[in-house]
Each structure stands twice: as structure tokens, then as C-alpha cells.
Amino acid sequence: MSTNETFESLELLIERLRNSQSGRGVAARATVAKLAANDPQQALRLARSIEHPWYRCQAIASIVEANLSSRDAEELLDEAFTAASSQSEPNRVASVAFWPLRLLVSTGSDKAVLRTRELLQVIAKEPHGLRKLDGLRAILTAVVSSHELRELVLKPFTLASAASQGWRTERIIDIVAEILIPFDREAASRLLYSRPPSRYTRRSRALLSGLPGA
Description:
12 helices, 0% strand, 2 domains, 214 residues, mainly alpha, 74% helix
């Protein structure tokens, strides 16, 4: 294949991706984020038109993030959760629900407990160990600032981490430990030292120990 033919093939692939449901969702989500603060109504109309539930959830959440004091913020977060839940894979539901859940926790809404419990029930159905761990990472990251919710998610996350192996698992452990340290150093320490040291958790171990250059 010549260089020109290669470029033509790449251009066709890029065009195909741009015109796919995911490609349209990515583009619309970016436009929603730009409109959210100055024209939330137009942003919401566009967000609701996004076909792909992953990007629709993120887009609606971005409108709330730009207008947290809005009186319909919680209602819009419900809409974002509905979009997330319309997906068939538990890991994808939990992963994208990070966006509305994080915002719900930041508002201090009592509904955050209900949503967290719902997502824990969803991710419990994930048959793949690593995908379950990654979904729990998303939930835990969203609620980490709340002591009550953090404790609720830490137990299933710890159980899932004990049942999972490999470098991707260690990377997830590193991410979660680093996020935990400012809120619960003891939990971060238990998580890290329940596993043998690895190069993937070097940074979080250094942060926990207060070593320079972390």
C-alpha cells in the first residue's frame, strides 16, 4: 500500500469514527461543556439529543457542574443517572455514573446514599473481576470525600482487590490509594500493604510514607 493510500484509509477511518454514535456523542459533549455556564438551556437541549448514553450522562452532569446552585440540579442528576443505567454492562454503568455521583455527593444531598447503594448492587453483578474492581474504583473515587459513603464502598472494593491479580489491578490499587491518602491514610495503608510491593504502586507508597519526590 502506498503512502497516499495509507493516508486515504486513515482519513476514511477518522470520518467513519466521527460519524459513529460515539463520535457524535464526543463532539456534542464538548459543545455542551462550552455552552453549560452561559446558555444552560441550549446546552441541555443538545445534551438530551445525544444518542449514546455514556456521553449523554457526562454532558448532563457537566451542565449541573457549571450550575450547581440551580434549583433543578438534583433533577438533572437523576436524568444523568438514568442515562448511565440504560447501559447493559455493569462496569460501564458504574464508571460513567462517577460524574453525577461525584456532584451529588458534593451537594450534600441525602440521595447520595441511595445512589451509591444502587451502584454497588449494579457492579456486584459484573462477572469479570478486573472490570468489577474498576467499577468499584469509579464509585469510591466519586464518594471519597464522604466518610459514610467511603466506608460503604471500601469493603467491597477491598474484597474485589483481594480477588484480582495482575498489573492492571495494581494500577487501580495505586490510583485508589493515592485518592484515599488525604481522607483516610489508615485505609490507604491497609490497602497498599495487603499486597506485595510493585512498581505500579511505588508512587502511592512514597506518598504514604511522605518521601520526597512522590
